[in-house]
Each structure stands twice: as structure tokens, then as C-alpha cells.
Amino acid sequence: MRNKVWVLIFALTAFAQAHGNIALLLEEPYGRLGSVDPTGHSAVYLTQVCADSPTHLRRCQPGEAGVVISRYHRIAGYDWLAIPLLPYLYAVDSLQQIPQSVDAKTVARLRDEYRRAHLLALAPDDANGHAPQGDWTQLVGSAYDRKLYGFEIETTPEQDDAFIQHFNDSKNRSHYSLFLANCADFARTAINFYQPHAIRRNFLADVGITTPKQDAKSLVSYSHRHPIVELSTFQIPQVPGSIERSRPAHGVAEALLKTKKYVVPLAILSPAVTGSIAVVYFTEGRFNPRRNTAVFDLVHAVQPPVTAMPSAMTGSNPAKGLTTR
């Protein structure tokens, strides 16, 4: 009888672990581009979806940590690409390889080493055999450049399978558009695949442009109306070092008000328009992604606990000291 109970417990635990999550990633802007376009970047992280290559998805095997998928503008002509979680954040293959502190030279080396090992089809060497210029660097080492915030909901195996089939069967050719098909639009489409109508554009605060911050604000609002989705939040800090720190992400109206290079000329040319933008922002555009976020448990994500068979079934002692998230 005891063995039957253990078998039932083990089966239920395995069933629970088969369920996964999809997390909307709101990534802060950085560098020169971030000063011009302070909206940041959007991606999605799926815990039970993995990839045979950056362009072909599959279900994860035990011990795999899932992938981050996003839309890109100029990387080998593809619309979306999937990168395993750890390389996406740190451009390495194991936890032990993550540096405690970085400078620009270290980040460039780590990215190039990962590119040479895994991404030559997307970013081949230049004519001199060196790392090429281009946007491929966005694929790996995101946490060196900026802080990320995650907004996570649960998925079912059936939903994950449908997601994999849909994206594998769809034509993966770039059709990036800042106004109609940007990275935040891709993230909106991915989240809505699991929870239809969860994320919507804001035609007032963002003049109809989908922004990463609106994605997050909209998903949080949806979770308040639909508590069954059980939204959880987390943050992934920017790795310490000499690299310039990222800045908070803004929506369109917020950027116009909080960015000096925009608001000063606008206020001089049209105080009435500036006032209208302020009203729109304070009524529609405010959102704090830092609220109630704990630091992401990377160790658990990359090395998830393994459910041990009890001694009555295996002849050995149950596993001890497993971490939990």
C-alpha cells in the first residue's frame, strides 16, 4: 500500500512539473539607442519550450531551462529567433561561467565565443575572420547591458505544443516595423496566443505603438481581472561592472515628458499639446514594473529540482538539499 501511495505522489509531481510558464520580459533601454528610443525591448521566456536551433522549436527535455524568443530587425533575415535562457542572459553555457563583474572587452569576448560555438549560421565571421558588426549581439548577454523584468503566467502542455507547431509551421521571414510589428508586438502576440486579448495596445498613451512597458502594464491589468492566471513577477539585475547602467523603460507619452531633448522644444512650440500629453500620461501611461518583484532564481531555472524516487521504490535514500523557487 505504501508503494502505491508513493507511486501516486510521484506521478502527480511529474504531472505538475510538466506544466510550464511563459514570461513577458520587459528589458530596459541602454546606450545611445536607448537615449533616442527609451522604450526598451520585449521578449518572451518559455520554461517548457526549447529549440533544436534558433529557428526550430521543440518541447524541453528534463533538465533544460527553456528559451527566450523575440523579434529582431536585421539578423539573417529572420523575424524571430530562440536562444536558451542562460546564453541569452550571459552568453555562456553554464552557471559556473557567469562572471561576477564585466567590462566591455569581457562582454565582447564572451559573445564572440558563444557566436563561434553556436551562431555562425546567423552571424558568420567577417572578411578578416573576426566577429561581424550588426544586431546579432542582441541575441546573447542581455543582462550585461540592462536590467530585465519578468511577468509570468502558467501554461499547459497542450498550449506549449500548439505554440511550437504554430511557430514552426509559420513563415519566419523578417517583417519588422517600428509602428506595426516591433519586438513588443511579437511579445503581445505570443502572450495572447496563451491568453487571448490579455495584452492590448494603448492608443492614447502610446499613440497606437505597442511598447514593452504597455505589454507589461496590460498583462498586469489582465491578471487583476482574471486572477486564475496567477501572475508572478521577477527581476534580473544588470551584471555589475564598468558598463553603463541601463535606464527605466518609458512609454511614448512618458518619453516625451521625461526626456529633456523632447519635452523642452515641445513645451516651447506648443504648451497646449504638452499639457495634453501630460494628462494622457497621468491617466493612462503610468506603470511601475519594479513593484513587488523578487530577484529571479536563476539556479532553480537552470538546474530545476529532480524529484527523487523514495527509498521504498529505488532502494536508495531520497534526494536531499534540493533548492526551491
Tags for this model:
325 residues, alpha+beta, 2 domains, seven-stranded mixed beta sheet, two-stranded antiparallel ribbon, 39% helix, globular, disordered N terminus
Mean pLDDT: 84
List segments where confidence is low: pLDDT < 50 over at least 5 consecutive residues.
1-16, 307-325
Q: What's the helical proportion of residues?
A: 25-40%
Q: Shape from CA axes?
A: globular
Compressed to H and E, one letter per element, the order equals: HEHEEEEEHHHEHHHEHHHEHH
Strand order in the largest sheet: 6-5-2-1-7-8-9
- The radius of gyration over CA amounts to 21 Å
Structural class: alpha+beta
Tally of discrete structural domains: 2
Q: What's the total number of strands? A: 9
What kind of sheet is the major sheet? Answer: 7 strands, mixed
**What is the terminal-to-terminal distance?**
32 Å
What amount of the residues lies in strands?
5-15%
Number of helices: 13
